[in-house]
Amino acid sequence: MEKINPLISQKFLEAIKNQKIIIGVIIIAVIVVFIGWQMYEDKQGNSGSIKIGVAIAGTGEASEWGQGEFRVIQMYIDDLNARGGVNGKQINLVVEDTKSTGVGTVDAVMKLIKVDKVPVIIGPTWGDSFQGGYPIAEDSKTVLLTPSAALETVEDKEKFTYLFSTWWPQLTEVQALQNFMLSHGIKNIFIVNDHDAFNTKVSDIFENAAKEKNLNIIGREQIPIGQNDFRTIIIKAKQLKPDAIFVEMQSVSNIGPFMKQAKELGLSARVFSTSAGQNEDAVKKFKEAMESFTYSFIKTPSGAVYDNFVKEYQAKYKQLPSGPSVLNTYNAIVALTEVLKSGAQTGTEIRDALYKVKVSGIGVPEVSFNSLGQINEADFEIRMVRDGQFITVND
């Protein structure tokens, strides 16, 4: 066998060694360039805009609420951006329609988190009825700041530290409604609610609070979500001779049919609900039947801030602001803006700052959150339908 020249072998090994060094240098250079480019992109993204997710009900049963919520967000952000944004950065809204369903809400939240990678989402609309997005947001450390979710409905709320709501405490609202009932000699009450999480919880709160005020709950019927034939229930309630009926339904458009059927069957008891019962479409379609429908609502604010809000809203959308969650949406975006101004960027930073925020809002003494992520208090008034209009009851 022919022997290999040691000199040639040594040169060959040195060549391989040099080639490895060159390849290594190239790899390191590529990595450095890649990291540098990523840092540049991040810097450009951070310096150019702040991305905020919006999960609202653009379609479906909750669309009246969702569209009102979006208008407020859009109006506020348009004005904010026109004035230079937040710390020189423009706000970029990424909007998804929850379609007023549980599946639609999960899809919207998932897309905003996984695809758009937003650190915070305003919404979802009716977050108490559609809670599927909560675990997703918690696992990804993304803040959910909803204007229309009663957090009393959320089991084990302490597990969802990234969930906040500017919807008021339900007990406070229920007590305001019951105080009105007592002042008008109402004593015996029949409850009707569907199996929606919000309506079930609010009705539970109403029933428990009634005992403390010596109001008599003479009956309670729970129905499937979406049921619109109430004749059997109304006949049963009528036989018990209630002074009032307390009604809570997810399908708020069914308030009209309920009132119509109640009048057709000769039910004389006054019908009450909470702020969730305010529905302009029901009043338009069932004007006569809706007469005297009575409900609690967040107290109409006064002052320059509210007046300017109404003026700007009307100028932009050619209508007055309406819907139970409109003012809550304003309070949510004001609180979030304050947090962003402080420099919070990540979901965790935004969450921690929201627990500390204290800012003036509309309809509440102060926008601040308790340990469960809920605003602390709100003031309420009583409204009713009269001649096709929602009016405030002064007595």
Structural commentary:
It is a single chain. With 395 residues, this protein is an alpha/beta fold. The protein folds into two domains: 51-167 and 301-378, 3-Layer(aba) Sandwich (Rossmann fold); 170-292, Response regulator (Rossmann fold, 3-Layer(aba) Sandwich), CATH 3.40.50.2300. Helix content is 45%, strand content 17%. The protein has helices at residues 6-48, 63-82, 102-114, 133-140, 170-183, 197-212, 231-239, 255-264, 280-285, 304-317, 326-341, 347-354; strands spanning 49-56, 90-97, 120-122, 143-146, 163-165, 188-194, 216-223, 244-248, 270-273, 294-298, 380-386, 389-392. It has a seven-stranded mixed beta sheet with strand order 7-6-8-9-10-11-12, covered by helices on one side. It has a five-stranded parallel beta sheet with strand order 2-1-3-4-5. α4 links the parallel β3 (120-122) and β4. The chain is globular and about 95 Å long. The protein starts with 5 loop residues before the first helix and ends with a strand.
